[in-house]
Amino acid sequence: MSPAIGLAAGLPAPALSHELTRLTTPVTAPDFTLPDMDDVQHTLAAYRGRVVMLNFWATWCPPCRREIPSMESIYQDLRKDGFVVLAVNEFEDVDRVFAFTGQLNVFPSFPILFDSDSKVSEKYGVKGLPTTLLINKRGEVVYRAVGGRDFDHAQVRDIVRGLLTDD
């Protein structure tokens, strides 16, 4: 049975994975500038020297919706150490995303950015949502995950802590 049929039938959704794929060779993260919900521009280069979780998502994507609380949890716990979460919404407008975040049990405090023409996701080779990339302090993509993840998992936290202590 497909997960969509299971969800429609009231069955529990499958657990989110916690596995991240380490890139054999780190790749320089393409720079970009995108607006947030308040139309403040965020440039990736401004976060150089910090570890960045770059998450591509949409409100209509069930795994995207499910992973947001774990993204907020890891962000709250590690932001003081230089960890940043940037959630890049694909194709949707501010009003739709704002209404969606208002329905969540945990309101995301990390920046939600808008890639309305999908140019940034194209630069990163995003083929499906959610897609998450971990970028080290040097601005290199070092981990990738396609599909929903539990970012609150101990193994994910260990990976991020390792990147935070790596110079």
Provide structural commentary:
Strand 7 (131-135) and strand 8 form a beta hairpin. Helix content is 29%, strand content 27%. Strands 1-8-7-4-5-6 form a 6-stranded mixed β-sheet. It contains 5 helices and 8 strands. Mean pLDDT is 92; it is low at 1-8. It has helices at residues 3-8, 62-78, 94-102, 119-123, 154-165, and strands at residues 21-28, 33-35, 41-43, 51-57, 83-90, 112-115, 131-135, 140-146. The chain has one domain (16-27, 49-165): Glutaredoxin (3-Layer(aba) Sandwich). The chain has 167 residues and is of the alpha/beta class.
Labels describing this entry:
167 residues; alpha/beta; Glutaredoxin; six-stranded mixed beta sheet; 5 helices; globular
Task: Give a quick summary of the entry.
By secondary structure, the protein is α/β, with parallel strands linked by helices.
Blueprint (SSEs and pairs):
Layout: H1 3-8, E1 21-28, E2 33-35, E3 41-43, E4 51-57, H2 62-78, E5 83-90, H3 94-102, E6 112-115, H4 119-123, E7 131-135, E8 140-146, H5 154-165
Parallel strand pairs: 4-5, 5-6
Antiparallel strand pairs: 1-8, 2-3, 4-7, 7-8
Extract low-pLDDT stretches.
1-8
**First and last CA, distance:** 46 Å
Give the % helix.
25-40%
Give the structural class. alpha/beta
Sheet-strand content, in percent, reads 25-35%
Strand order of the largest sheet: 1-8-7-4-5-6
User: CATH homologous superfamily - what is it?
Assistant: Glutaredoxin
